[in-house]
Specification:
Elements (H helix, E strand, L loop, with lengths): L6 H19 L7 H17 L5 H24 L4 H15 L7 H18 L6 H24 L9 H9 L6 H20 L6 H10 L4 H28 L5 H9 L2 H7 L1 H19 L7 H45 L1
Helix pairs in contact: 1-2, 1-6, 1-11, 2-3, 2-6, 2-13, 3-5, 3-6, 4-5, 4-8, 5-9, 8-9, 8-14, 9-14, 10-13, 10-14, 11-13, 12-13
C-alpha cells in the first residue's frame, strides 16, 4: 500500500501540478496544443533534474540540462537519414549515460534524458525549433517553480549536488566500461528489433532499455517486473481515458496526477511507471490532437516495453556471465605472467 505524501512531497507535488497543468490549461484559450504539451513535458523533465540544492546549482542543473537535451535532439535531427552515423552517436551517448552510478542521481538522469532526446529525434518524433523553444520555456517555468518550492521546503532532506557528482565522476567513481558498453549495445539491439517487428515507434523499445537497465543485477530484475506491470496498467488506464473521455478533461486530470509524482516515485517504481505512463500518454495525445490523437500508438506502448524488457533480461544474463569470466581471465593471465 502507498503511504500518504509527506509535507515535502505535497509541496513538490504541487510544483509538478502547476508546471504541467498550467500550460495545458492554457490550451482552453490558446489553439496551440502541441506547443503547450511540449512546454508541459519540458517542465516535467526539468523538475526531475532539479537538485533541490542551492540556487546556483538549480540554475545550472535545470537550464544547462535542458540545453544539453535540446542540443542532443538537434544532433538527432541532423542524423536523420544517416543511420550509420546515428548508431555511432547512440553508442557514444549511451556509453556516457551508463557511466554515472545510481547514487549519482542528477548525472544518471541527465545522461538518460540526453540519450533519449537524440534517439527520439532521430526516429522522427517532432523535433523542430518550435519544439526546442517549448521545452526551454517549460524548463524556465520549472526553474521559477523550483525556487518557490525551495523557499517553502528549506529543510527538504532529499536534495543532491550536481557539482559533487561531477567531481566524483571525474575522480573515476563510475560504472566502468563493461556496463558502459553493454547499455548502448542493448539499446541498439532492442531498437533494431523494434524496427524489424515494424513497431510504430521503435525508439520506445530503446527507451525502455535506457530507463530500466540498472548496474545492480537484483535491482534490475525487480525493476523489470515492476516496469512491465506498471506500464501495462498505465497503458490500459490511458487507453480507456483516451477512448471514453473528451480531451477537455485531460488537463485537470494531468494536474491532479502530477501532484502525486514525488510520493509515488519514492515509494514504488511499479506505481511510478503506471503514473508516468498515463501522464506522458495523455500529454502526447494532446500534442497530436491535430493528427487525430495518440490512440493508435498507445496500443503499441506495452508491446514496445515488453520487447525492451526482454532485451534487458538477455543483456543482464550475458553481463552476469561476463562479470564472472573477466576476473578469472585476468587471474589466469597473471598466473601465466608469473610463470614466465
Amino acid at each position: 500500500m502507498l503511504e500518504s505524501p509527506t509535507r515535502f512531497e505535497w509541496i513538490r507535488g504541487s510544483g509538478y501540478a502547476i508546471a504541467m497543468g498550467l500550460p495545458l490549461l492554457l490550451s482552453y484559450i490558446i489553439d496551440a496544443p502541441q506547443t503547450l504539451a511540449f512546454v508541459a513535458l519540458g517542465a516535467m523533465f526539468a523538475l526531475r533534474l532539479d537538485p533541490r540544492h542551492g540556487t546556483s546549482q538549480q540554475v545550472f542543473a535545470i537550464v544547462g540540462g535542458m540545453c544539453l537535451m535540446i542540443a542532443s535532439g538537434a544532433l538527432g535531427v541532423l542524423l536523420v537519414g544517416h543511420r550509420e552515423l546515428a548508431i555511432a552517436a547512440l553508442v557514444l551517448i549511451a556509453f556516457l549515460a551508463g557511466q554515472p552510478r545510481p547514487e549519482q542521481a542528477y548525472l544518471s538522469l541527465l545522461g538518460k534524458f540526453t540519450a533519449a532526446a537524440m534517439l527520439l529525434a532521430e526516429m522522427g518524433l517532432p523535433a523542430t525549433l518550435n519544439t526546442a523553444l517549448a521545452y526551454l520555456v517549460g524548463a524556465l517555468l520549472a526553474l521559477l517553480i523550483s525556487f518557490i518550492v525551495a523557499a517553502l521546503a528549506k529543510d527538504d532532506p532529499q536534495g543532491w549536488s550536481p557539482a559533487t557528482e561531477l567531481k566524483q565522476l571525474m575522480a573515476g567513481d563510475i560504472n566502468g566500461p563493461l556496463f558502459g558498453l553493454t547499455l548502448p549495445l542493448t539499446i541498439l539491439a532492442a531498437t533494431l528489433s523494434g524496427l524489424a517487428l515494424h513497431a510504430q515507434h521503435a525508439a520506445w523499445v530503446g527507451l525502455t532499455v535506457l530507463f530500466v537497465m540498472h548496474v545492480n543485477d537484483a535491482n534490475t530484475w525487480q525493476r523489470l517486473r515492476q516496469r512491465i506491470i506498471g506500464t501495462l496498467l498505465g497503458v490500459l488506464i490511458a487507453y480507456m481515458l483516451v477512448m471514453w473521455l473528451p480531451r477537455d478533461f485531460y488537463p485537470p486530470i494531468i494536474l491532479v496526477l502530477a501532484l502525486f509524482i514525488p510520493a509515488v516515485m519514492r515509494q514504488s517504481y511499479q506505481w511510478f511507471s503506471l503514473l508516468i505512463s498515463v501522464l506522458v500518454l495523455l500529454v502526447i495525445d494532446i500534442a497530436m490532437v491535430h493528427q487525430g490523437g495518440d490512440l493508435q500508438l498507445i496500443r503499441w506502448r506495452f508491446f514496445d516495453t515488453l520487447i525492451g524488457c526482454l532485451w534487458v533480461a538477455t543483456a543482464l544474463v550475458i553481463l552476469r556471465f561476463a562479470k564472472h569470466w573477466w576476473p578469472e581471465k585476468a587471474k589466469s593471465k597473471n598466473k601465466s605472467n608469473n610463470s614466465i
